[in-house]
From TrEMBL, chains A, B:
GO terms for cellular component: peroxisome. Its cofactor is FAD. The active site is at 421 (proton acceptor). This is Acyl-coenzyme A oxidase. It comes from Escallonia rubra.
Amino acid sequence: MDQLGEERRKAQFDVDDMKIVWAGSRHNFEVSDRMAKLVASDPGFRKDTRTMLARKELFKNTLRKAAYAWKRIVELRLSEEEASKLRFYVDETAFTDLHWGMFVPAIKGQGTEEQQQKWLPLAYKMKIIGCYAQTELGHGSNVQGLETTATFDHQTDEFVMHSPTLTSSKWWPGGLGKASTHAVVYARLITDDQDQGIHGFIVQLRSLEDHLPLPGITIGDIGMKFGNGGYNTMDNGVLRLDHVRIPRSHMLMRVLQVTREGKCIQSDVPRQLVYGTMVYVRQAIVADASCALSRAVCIATRYSAVRRQFGSQNGGPETQVIDYKTQQNRLFPLLASAYAFRFVGEWLNWLYTDVTQRLQANDFSTLPEAHACTAGLKSLTTTATADGIEECRKLCGGHGYLCSSGLPELFAVYVPACTYEGDNTVLLLQVARFLIKTVSQLGSEKKPVGTTSYMGRVEHLMQCRSDTQRAEDWLKPSAILEAFEARATRMSVACAQKLSKFSNPEEGFAELSADLVEAAVAHCQLIVVTKFLEKLQQEIPGKGVKQQLEALCNIYALFLLHKYQGDFLATGCITSKQASLANDQLRSLYSQVRPNAIALVDAFNHTDHFLGSILGCYDGNVYPKLYEAAWKDPLNDSVVPDGYHEYIRPLLKQELRTARL
Amino acid sequence: MDQLGEERRKAQFDVDDMKIVWAGSRHNFEVSDRMAKLVASDPGFRKDTRTMLARKELFKNTLRKAAYAWKRIVELRLSEEEASKLRFYVDETAFTDLHWGMFVPAIKGQGTEEQQQKWLPLAYKMKIIGCYAQTELGHGSNVQGLETTATFDHQTDEFVMHSPTLTSSKWWPGGLGKASTHAVVYARLITDDQDQGIHGFIVQLRSLEDHLPLPGITIGDIGMKFGNGGYNTMDNGVLRLDHVRIPRSHMLMRVLQVTREGKCIQSDVPRQLVYGTMVYVRQAIVADASCALSRAVCIATRYSAVRRQFGSQNGGPETQVIDYKTQQNRLFPLLASAYAFRFVGEWLNWLYTDVTQRLQANDFSTLPEAHACTAGLKSLTTTATADGIEECRKLCGGHGYLCSSGLPELFAVYVPACTYEGDNTVLLLQVARFLIKTVSQLGSEKKPVGTTSYMGRVEHLMQCRSDTQRAEDWLKPSAILEAFEARATRMSVACAQKLSKFSNPEEGFAELSADLVEAAVAHCQLIVVTKFLEKLQQEIPGKGVKQQLEALCNIYALFLLHKYQGDFLATGCITSKQASLANDQLRSLYSQVRPNAIALVDAFNHTDHFLGSILGCYDGNVYPKLYEAAWKDPLNDSVVPDGYHEYIRPLLKQELRTARL
Ligand SMILES: Cc1cc2nc3c(=O)[nH]c(=O)nc-3n(C[C@H](O)[C@H](O)[C@H](O)COP(=O)(O)OP(=O)(O)OC[C@H]3O[C@@H](n4cnc5c(N)ncnc54)[C@H](O)[C@@H]3O)c2cc1C
Ligand SMILES: Cc1cc2nc3c(=O)[nH]c(=O)nc-3n(C[C@H](O)[C@H](O)[C@H](O)COP(=O)(O)OP(=O)(O)OC[C@H]3O[C@@H](n4cnc5c(N)ncnc54)[C@H](O)[C@@H]3O)c2cc1C
Ligand SMILES: [Ca+2]
């Protein structure tokens, strides 16, 4: 029975048009589609044995794939856009991620013109491999607390890079452990015994001839991480520097220059430049979140349509588990979230352009807001995605626990996104700080901008009450928006009021930080809802496409409204009757989405190779494939397992006393 | 600096007394302590290289440990209690878990006296190794849908065991894949073409001489599962039966007998017997939950006291992250949950005795309630524990992502508890069904019993309002209890009312199932809170011990009240002002627990071996140990990695064109 074929026939919209919307443009779709298929059809990129390999083999195979990908990129003369898509579809975390994603951007962002001209051509050709060495054993979140020192030596015109303590060992940088030849090392600049703060330095780690660490340098891999294949394809590393000397010109000096005399000179490049990079990195993380979540949702949705359990009547087929309302209530909000994060990611992309242009025009007015907003969205989307992947795994019952479902590895490789580039709680506290500041300025000249501009209507939002009276009223964008804006405003204002009772504001902030985080979450959820609604204000071509997106947007919003109804009720934005109506509406939205669910995940255009999941395969032919795959486990190399003679037989024969164990 | 020593000095209670409370009795404590130390001090049980092994080595090593554990058990003439504790502290999922935990109990529960006399002595000596083969590729939750057949053959007085379809392949049973010689296979009994439902059959799988599968039997391992070591020490297996013949006497016939003539005779043993086993298995799962959660909490708590980040003043030490209120707000409710689950597990243990006695007295009146309550508590505690372990991992920042933190593997090995022995959502639906039935009988003769007896006060609970006026009022057990009872009652009653509007009750149940699950959760949370409060009514000796437990109980309850304030507000049990007071009280409880946090996790009495975590080690000497451990990864066997010459060098030297990749 072609279960999924039948599902596809039920769809009420044009899936090809939706693919374009998901991809962002026809161009994006075409490049992605081409690169995805290129990777999928090339046996050199197979990944189905990844979870069976021990660490060394696994890592060696990653080195092979990285080299092979680069070879193909060069052979096919791929554009930068195509190359980065190709690497993306290879779908194996590797040192190249850091080289392209952190090392190159650090030089671009923090290097002078001269430095860029020296280093970038080497990096672009991969004549050197670079990584980004910031975190230490003792300091991650608190970058200002880093202990590695870079001391200027007047005599030799060099910096002496040194790890003075055990906790100052660099620890975590990806690509550092085994692959990189160079690193941007963040260290405390010291000139004439003066602490000049943390700056980046280009340090050569290994000989370009034999790959051995240079004198004074100790490097290694920090060991196994979560998951089987997972992130273990990456050589996150440890680095100790013992008075390693580098030329003065290796300090990245775009913002601060150290002269031959050891004087520090602030350049006229604005310090705020870092914001640009931050917005860039974080918009990429949000885009990744929507992608990772869409993979998990695609797997769980397809399998939920294939899996049948209970409800057979008169010997007929059982019920598809996707028809259970509990399954829908767990799955469809995640489907909606994948779309919501996609669109907010698209908007962040725009924001990055906007920020860049403003920086060029020396307009810094929107930067703090852009910074807070990207911090918050990074936190919100990565947390929701990590949790969502695991929920999708559970939605697949027992079979979701097999690596062949693809979900365990997807989870293991995804979760650190909640920690790196800013611990999610630390980020929300930054958002909260910004919100409190915004509230404190509400009466003043300074009007709230960007994603906080709704707070300009604080008076209305503090006292408005939702006027929804029937379930359908909750479909109105204005009803949703007002409820979310009112809730976010009231939570921020309530925190500000409580804070004002403390004589020491920092103490107050610390004491109330759990509440502040909740206010920050409310604000971030509002942003996602707003951007989804704004997207729907655009023209969206394609039969039925817009209707589907409207349903998903409403599911996203009303699911949040239900899950966080405590916020909405406690702040008096809605009544419990209205909350209940929203919930009724949510249920009927599920029914509306149900016949379109398979097509909505098809629209992600994930190849079977990229999904890496038997449960999620396009043809839905789950059971024969699961059965086949099982036999490939090395444990099935022999019928009688290794160890039988030594350990099982003596047990059964009651001969353990003399056995060597 | 002996950070944790200082923390221990701050504690305001006697940790040795708390250890007894945690263990349940002095006897339990002593046995556990002795067995834990026995395992920890024996190099034969080392587990620190587990995550580095490939599957075959990993599995072979598990076989060794299982045999070695048995050898020690025999040598030391350990009692059953001691033996099971020893296996527990070996802390490696293995075929023996199923042998002792499912195979033996199945024979005890479903075998006749005669069958027990035949099989149990063999099993007790491990002359045979058994597993529990119920789930199939196509059927897990819906046991009644199993497809494997056991057809009675009149001529030979045998059953013919057969897998008629691909989806009827047994799939998942632990110990089946490689180790077991026997299985209890659940199959559809067919006599004279009549379907007689699902029953258990003892099937020999492998020869006792050479361990080869017997004729007609195909067996293998189903492949890699979540995590690295994780559950991959277990040989979850696939089994196909091709007309395999077994004697009639191998059907487990305690409840239903098949005679030589192929007649089915119901025995006078009550069918409800299964409930006894179910309560037993589930109370064990709840006890496991508290143990797994306590491990994660112990690791995160100790590391949070060691880890310092930000907040250094005048060059002094930074703030311990455990002092951040956001950290406390994530961590302390989990600490409280570990204790809460421990005590509800203790109570379930009592319930099992009670149920057993009633069964013997042919009193079935409390069984449905006991069944619903254990189903609900299994679901609630395993979900909270799985989520809690991952939260603890995140609480450790980047270092939590290393396998050496112990947390990734703890998570990976724990999560299937949400799926096996009843999918958690399916279980909550069963609870909901029972609640709705209870509500429908409220006016009648049938009074609600056991954990639903609060519903007897439905009239009061439907209209009462909390009278808390100050934050401290929320410390009163009566205030907490009434709020939780009122909320649970109102949610069940509201569902029942909505259901009554459907002409077809089953349709209504399906449509409203998401709401029903929420009502079930509310009921289960009430049970946990109630049992914790009841525990505190007992005499609890030891300096300061009871005070600490009271604080934890209040944290557990008020944290839930805050997290689910939407329920409490929507049902009008409390006002938003009261919700806010509860939250204030919660914050001050955190401050109260803070100085005791380390001692409260010490009270779990986990050895460093059992914890298997560098971040959680007793002496808090985290950084040097992390650093040491890293170098043991096989990837660090050589400074220049395997694959450098083939893949890195050609890349750097721009010689990929001619490289073999
Ligand atoms: C897979 C992976 C890859 C990585 N790659 C790189 C890389 O390439 N280069 C690199 O330099 N680094 C890398 N890192 C390191 C990463 O950036 C850090 O782990 C991250 O910044 C978190 O910092 P931390 O580990 O110090 O967490 P911590 O700050 O120690 O967090 C521990 C706990 O303390 C809490 N906390 C900390 N400060 C506060 C506060 N002020 N208020 C309230 N709570 C607080 C946190 O919320 C958390 O719960 C990587 C990490 C991982 C896991
Ligand atoms: C590690 C592990 C060890 C195991 N060990 C054993 C063993 O030793 N022996 C053995 O026999 N089995 C074993 N199992 C199998 C286990 O018992 C089943 O996986 C479990 O019963 C869940 O069933 P399922 O996989 O069919 O899930 P499914 O029922 O297929 O669940 C899939 C989804 O459908 C939903 N769903 C299903 N029915 C309904 C419904 N009526 N209403 C609403 N939603 C529904 C579920 O909530 C879930 O989201 C093991 C499984 C694992 C993961
Ligand atoms: Ca492995």
